[in-house]
Design a protein that fits this description.
Blueprint: E1 37-42, E2 54-59, E3 66-73, E4 85-91
Antiparallel strand pairs: 1-2, 3-4
């Protein structure tokens, strides 16, 4: 099964805290057609849900991405001296202290001074 880690044979003792680590790839966007969650199930192979031991759903943090990005300007005329450029965007995570957002142009944006 895709996106599934299955421990086929594992033994747990009572009153012991267990954990595991696994490398994952963070997607570029939050899911739009499925839950943004991790599902942990013990007894997953049981067809009857009442026969399964335990399960929990943990919501995943939102992907640190920008949404609703817009760029506006007064004029696209070369040499227009009173031009203004406006960037609008929504962030999916907090941009904390000593952090920032870098805006880099290409060869077509030469001459802009911020």
């Amino acid at each position: 099964v895709v996106n599934t880690i299955i421990f086929s044979v594992v033994y747990f003792n009572a009153n012991v805290k267990y954990g595991f680590q696994h490398k994952i790839r963070i997607p570029n966007f939050n899911p739009r057609t499925s839950a943004n969650s991790f599902f942990f199930e013990f007894g997953y192979e049981k067809a009857d849900i009442n026969s399964r031991l335990r399960a929990v759903v943990i919501e995943a943090p939102r992907v640190a991405a920008m949404l609703n990005c817009k760029v506006g300007f007064n004029s696209n005329q070369v040499g227009f001296m009173d031009n203004r450029i406006q960037f609008e965007f929504q962030t999916m995570s907090i941009v904390g202290a000593n952090a920032g957002i870098i805006i880099i142009g290409d060869q077509n944006t030469r001459g802009f001074t911020f």
